[in-house]
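User: Modeling request: complex.
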Amino acid sequence: MRITDDPSTNPDDYEFRHRLRVRFAETDAMGIVHHSRYLPMVEEARVAYLRHIGHPYQEVREEGIEMNVLEAWMRYRMPLLFDEVVDVHVALVGVERASFQMGYLLTVDGDMRATGVTAHSCVTPAGRPTRLPRWLRDMG
Amino acid sequence: MRITDDPSTNPDDYEFRHRLRVRFAETDAMGIVHHSRYLPMVEEARVAYLRHIGHPYQEVREEGIEMNVLEAWMRYRMPLLFDEVVDVHVALVGVERASFQMGYLLTVDGDMRATGVTAHSCVTPAGRPTRLPRWLRDMG
Amino acid sequence: MRITDDPSTNPDDYEFRHRLRVRFAETDAMGIVHHSRYLPMVEEARVAYLRHIGHPYQEVREEGIEMNVLEAWMRYRMPLLFDEVVDVHVALVGVERASFQMGYLLTVDGDMRATGVTAHSCVTPAGRPTRLPRWLRDMG
Amino acid sequence: MRITDDPSTNPDDYEFRHRLRVRFAETDAMGIVHHSRYLPMVEEARVAYLRHIGHPYQEVREEGIEMNVLEAWMRYRMPLLFDEVVDVHVALVGVERASFQMGYLLTVDGDMRATGVTAHSCVTPAGRPTRLPRWLRDMG
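Assistant: Request completed. Predicted assembly structure:
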């Protein structure tokens, strides 16, 4: 496993915050957000983070780099409910030669709901490994 | 983290196999199955496993037990493509007093595509923790 | 069929506009938003509309009314792409004794992408038909 | 609107039946299958139908033809529940010069749950309109 640490539960340790609202379509018959639905939420936050730092993912893709997901891990601490406004705190938690990791903390009104990490590499549109762009290596 | 080990890559180490076919709706603009879509696949396999061992999840739910997801982790080794027939190999990889873990290996024609683990506890329909059913504790 | 008319393609004919951004997870292997993903988008817009008119859906639900979907229809005119900012224009296009219809127009930078209609009735949490709330009947 | 007729509620009027089981991930906080989740179900059935008639969709795609969705319409008659085994009855209900329509009837143990229609055209991978393949025109 690349992912071994649960990221910080302190919002101050994160560089960026993305806010979203839970959709009804994201809930399940337990009355809470289905566990698979957190990954699109943190992906939305990751894309917003890339835009925030001046590297919109669509531009990265147009330059011939896709950010592959190698691993994903979520820890569900307290449920998310329909219509809740969720703050997804985002941090770049590791940059290696050929991969990087992003950490996430999800809060609602300051209450912790979940943490997660995704590990990524870069690939060409044909799916071949390629090295990280310089701006990303420089952030390590 | 509860999940620390990547489960076996040998199908023979798994008790049960569930077969499914990739839906077009599960693909993304990279032309492969989106990483969030593996969790519903392993959930489908977990539900099939419970049916296989004589404890259909719907019966478990009607007895007042929901199986909460505490953590989920996936490792994406090779992409899954539209229309591929996926074997999801399932094993109970740990039973503790108040939680259990399930391991998964996804293969296509014997080729490894992904591994994953989910950690669960049991809760009442109102969301309160409750102990594991006896049949599950006895499997530990 | 209850739904027989394609709603207006003129944004001025709509009472309310909700803006959202396409998620990568909503795309498919054709490189565009999967057709099933428009329904959660218009649902998000419908929920935002209810909040806008002072009747947040979560409050409606807490008063014992669920808004069932009887029919849904979408017309896909031009594809939606990853990261596009979508304006979902919303209108109440019909109120009958026991049901109502909502119309939608999706635009990006003023260009039409899709239209749709959903037809709804009201049910109790147990799924039994119940009449529309007075405020909704009064909007007819 | 291209779609104007609700298709037959008699399973005998359909050429093909595809069976699937409701996933937990397809349910919502009303305890039933979310209305957006029927479209991937009927898409799965449409893909199975194409395989059944000797034209697997992946082969069609490799020949340079994508089947675009022009319109989709669903009528939700009775809810679908978690773990139910659903028969999706499929028929080609119309073939025109540049488009075709598929009709669907969803039943559980013979009880009708939903009907639907999707309208399609054919496009190249670049998204340009192209005519229907001959085998499809010949089915009209």
